[in-house]
Write a structure and sequence with these properties.
Elements (H helix, E strand, L loop, with lengths): L1 H23 L8 H11 L7 E4 L5 H9 L5 E4 L3 H13 L5 E4 L13 E4 L3 H13 L6 E5 L10 E4 L7 E6 L1
Parallel strand pairs: 1-2, 1-4, 2-3, 4-5
Antiparallel strand pairs: 5-7, 6-7
């Protein structure tokens, strides 16, 4: 009986992730440890306002930000059900109180209260977020992106990771 229950649970999780991937056009892919550390390092140059992570996935960066900045509010947006639930659980287990994680499309969210935005999107997602940020009168002061650049902006700083792909991490002043 246990094996059947486990099989059903694993199948439901897999179906949920595949469904979200098909709907969103991208799978919930966590940033590598090197990328996460570089992104956290770049946040040190961003003042003391709210930090938003767009597509917060499994909660790895949200949790690291919450620990690093206990006095800053950390906001995550994730649409994929299983990663969203996982990130909620992880933040509860670690007892961080400065995190809010929404199961909401960040394109429909009010990003005007963000001081810093972090993301690991795909090229079309970067184009969409760039249009959203440039169309809002009040926007974040900084954007930190893992791997994918904004098309019409020059980064303030770029860190190239010592990994197989020499992955770039971009810091933009908006």
């Amino acid at each position: 009986m246990f094996e059947i229950s486990l099989l059903i649970m694993v199948s439901a999780i897999a179906i949920s992730i595949v469904w979200s991937t098909l709907i969103l056009g991208i799978s919930p892919m966590p940033s590598s440890n090197k990328a996460r550390h570089a992104m956290l390092k770049l946040t040190e140059e961003t003042g003391d306002g709210r930090i938003f992570e767009l597509g917060s996935g499994w909660g790895n960066i949200v949790l690291a930000l919450a620990k690093k900045y206990p006095d800053r509010e950390i906001v995550g947006y994730e649409l994929s059900l299983v990663p969203w639930l996982t990130s909620i659980l992880v933040t509860k287990i670690y007892g961080v109180n400065n995190v809010k994680i929404y199961r909401k499309n960040f394109l429909a969210a009010d990003l005007s209260e963000a001081s810093v935005i972090l993301c690991y999107l795909f090229p079309a997602g970067m184009n969409t977020i760039e249009k959203k940020l440039t169309s809002q009168p009040e926007t974040a002061n900084y954007l930190i992106s893992n791997n994918f650049a904004l098309m019409s902006q020059v980064p303030h700083k770029t860190i190239v990771l010592n990994d197989l792909y020499h992955s770039p991490i971009y810091l933009y002043k908006l």
